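Practice problem: predict the structure.
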Amino acid sequence: KQATRDRLSDAMAEKELSAVVLRLRHSLSSCCKSIEGGEEETSGLLEELASFLDSISEAATSEPENEEARKNAVELLLEIQSFLVSSSTPNQAVVDALSFELPKAVSKFAGVSDRCLEIADSIIDWFVGRCNPRDMICILSEALDSLSTSSDPGYAAPLLTGLSKVFVSIKRHHFKQAKLAVPVVLNVLKVVSVELADRDAERVLLFNIALAMADSICVVSTKLDRGESEELQSLMGLFILQIMALVSASIPSEQSGCTPLVSEICKLLPRCGLTYLGLITESDVDAKISIVTKDKEDDIMTSFPDMRLGASLSVIWGDISNEIAEQAGENMSALKDKLQHNQVQRWEAIGMLKHIFSSVILPWDIKRHTVEFLLGITNGSFTPNCHNDEPITDCSIYMPSLFATAQAITKVIMHSPDSTLRKNSFEALKRVLADTPIPERIDILQALITNSDSSSMMWAIMFDSLSACCYSIQTAILLDLVRGELRKETLPKKSTNRGDEAGNHGSPTESAWTERILELVELVLRPPHGGQPSFPEHGEAVLAALNLYRFVLMKESAGKTNKTGVLFRKNLLRVCNEWLVPLRTIVSSTMADPENDPDEVAGMLNPIELVLYHCIELVEQNLSANPDSP
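Answer:
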């Protein structure tokens, strides 16, 4: 009985398949006749054919275990292939009309099985060989665009492959055609990075096809005149840098699985005129942008939002793997040595690393390697404050970028789950600051404090106590760095490494002992938005600020100096009346509040109370000792 049932089921399936194939043949035949006759209903017939094929592909993909649906899909694709390559091949008008619907329709079968992918590739390849190349670029790009928004992006493989092949056939206007396709391809890859997170094989396949397309375009560019060749290479350079960013972010947990893709990307860097030195200093990126954007009204650059991130990552991957660096034709030791001995290029490199440190989608492992790279290029004695053996008279143009990197490093310090990474990041932050002239260094430190994630204590208290605590810890770290800077200037000078001492940078007259120090303390004890610091949220920052003020006051008093202006009577009175006494009131009321846990409050406020009272005592002593000071 079971055998009989199976035979009946098979017979019904065969009958159903025959009906489907007959319907397809009829639909194709009707379309051809209508196109050849120039009939008005051609558009409707083509839409009906596409809708019919979509229903079959949807049935096959929605039920992966349904063998009959998979078999129907293969048979339909074979029928289309047979129709196209048969002896009664349709004329060019028919081919052109079918090219608007069939490539997109058959690509949706790619996810059904490897056999379907193979046949879909063959069908699209047939159209690529018989249609106008420029028309096919538009058709395939539009199909890709629709797939990226309405279907499984995994079906894009045949379309991407076809796009890669059609570029080889273009005779002119290569740059113009490439600019049409690149944004669409990158959009698909962006969707792929998210939608195919759990389908590694499909994701890697699509990235590899995109890189093959870039390779094909680079080959074509070598046969063009210098102007268009340069434009194409520049466009492909930005294209692969954007892909580098997508690849690095989309495979976060499997570095070894990501390496082959990264190797393929780095192999293309020299062909696009990109070097590691040019990438890490941003000069190559800027050069490619200027070439690609000669048309000021062109919005092509919106397709490369992460190109600078990709440029930085390209170098970091080379530092991670010698094999990857070799693929790019680079020597990492020589690169680091060059950066160590050229301050401007080192500043430019440090500035580029902010894109990695500030990224929220990259894995911590890549940030760890980036910190190690930064430590590598800042490891050694200070180089003169010069560029090409000439003094740097204006370093202000580099400071915004250095500040952004320092700010991004503080985020790594605050949020990394790994203690070693936090420790190394702190060392990296010290070296970035040490590599900066003292006046600008103080500017950066002040900006870091005032522009932290929760620079407004009031808002942090009102809406997010956790953010307030993070702000407090970050501020404390930065103020301790300032105190360290001041302490080093009081020590005997000796030959030192960049990470160990910051006080000997720049001209001999430069010093961190300036009136700016009081401004930093005031930012915490007397916030610019008004009000007073609150406990327990800002305990760490307040303690660091008090320690900094006490250190400065003691050193200036003992050395009978007043570089910071801390000993001026007006400043002593202002600090006592506006900072310290109000803070004493807050500390006392917090400790007396019955709603607070006594042990917890004591653990936090006892150190603050101790330093606070010592500060008040020192201020009173200096007021008494210098009653006639201004």
